[in-house]
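Re: [ENG-882] Designed sequences occasionally contain unexpected residues at chain ends

Forwarding the minimal case from QA. Structure tokens:
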């Protein structure tokens, strides 16, 4: 065997060392892939949760059959507050603009059925769920409602 070239045993030993290095590199790459996939899955889960928790508001009207008076407006305000409703906008509950009263408030979802019943005793209420940029806590709903009298 010429002196310039290593003996076959040296090649075999180098080949074995290279195989071990390649196996170690493959293991490192596999772990890195698993961590990346785990992070991607976690980020996807968070994104799905955010999409699932898009904000919304209940917007509508409560119409009374008779002329709207101060007593009716006060009764609506008192009922909302009694059910745990709190003002959510910049103006007080029952803010008056022209002949209409304006209610922007949050209400515990647990009290929604009772709220519907109380408002139905006063007039005809219709609420529609609309998308809104603000996301509320899971147990709270946001309502923007006007109170209008019969014409």
């Amino acid at each position: 065997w010429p002196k310039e070239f290593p003996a076959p045993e040296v090649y075999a030993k180098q080949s074995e060392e290279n195989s071990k290095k390649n196996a170690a590199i493959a293991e490192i790459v596999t772990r890195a892939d698993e961590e990346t996939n785990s992070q991607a899955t976690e980020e996807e889960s968070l994104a799905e949760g955010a999409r699932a928790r898009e904000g919304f508001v209940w917007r509508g009207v409560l119409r009374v059959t008779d002329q709207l008076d101060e007593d009716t407006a006060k009764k609506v305000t008192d009922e909302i507050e009694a059910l745990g409703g709190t003002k959510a906008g910049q103006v007080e509950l029952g803010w008056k603009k022209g002949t209409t009263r304006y209610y922007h408030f949050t209400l515990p979802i647990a009290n929604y059925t009772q709220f519907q019943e109380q408002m139905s005793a006063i007039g005809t209420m219709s609420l529609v769920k609309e998308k809104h940029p603000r996301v509320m806590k899971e147990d709270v709903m946001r309502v923007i409602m006007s109170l209008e009298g019969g014409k």
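QA comment: On inspection the terminal residues look reasonable. The chain has a mean pLDDT of 78. Proposing we downgrade this to a documentation issue.
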